[in-house]
Specification:
Layout: E1 3-7, H1 14-24, E2 31-34, E3 41-49, E4 56-58, E5 60-63, E6 66-69, E7 72-81, E8 84-85, E9 92-94, E10 99-102, E11 112-125, E12 132-136, E13 139-142, E14 147-149
Antiparallel strand pairs: 1-13, 2-11, 3-11, 4-10, 5-6, 7-8, 7-11, 9-10, 11-14, 12-13
Amino acid sequence: MSYNFLRSGQSFSEMQDIAGFFNARGGSFDSFLYFDIDDATVIDQSFGVTVNGQANYQLVRSFGGFVEPVFSPIGTPIVKVNGVTQTPITQYTVSTLGVITLIPTPSIAGQTLTWSGSYYYRCRFLQDNIDFEQFLQHLWHLKKIEFTSIKQ
């Protein structure tokens, strides 16, 4: 990301907000959740096929022929088994890392699992420092701040 100008001062604190968020993460030390408005939702995304005696299944999402895990779902996703919507808490639970636990443990193999919902990306800054450049009073440049999604 780059910013042509960020305001600072009593009325606007854009520069301070970015610096504070970056510093609170310790640069690249700690991760954060990022919501990508263009890519954060799935509808009837397949995430597995039941295996007799297996209760836990990781949420995933497809992108360009690649399937990757979803580790940070937002809220409670809608889960379907063979197209039938399941009831949260009584028929499934979801962990904070996106693992669906079916209740009871499936005794029938081969049932398709799908989910609908939104998710965050867990991200980390790539650098430990950022360089703001002041070009006028209370106006700053931030030429580049980079982050990447991480897989747990």
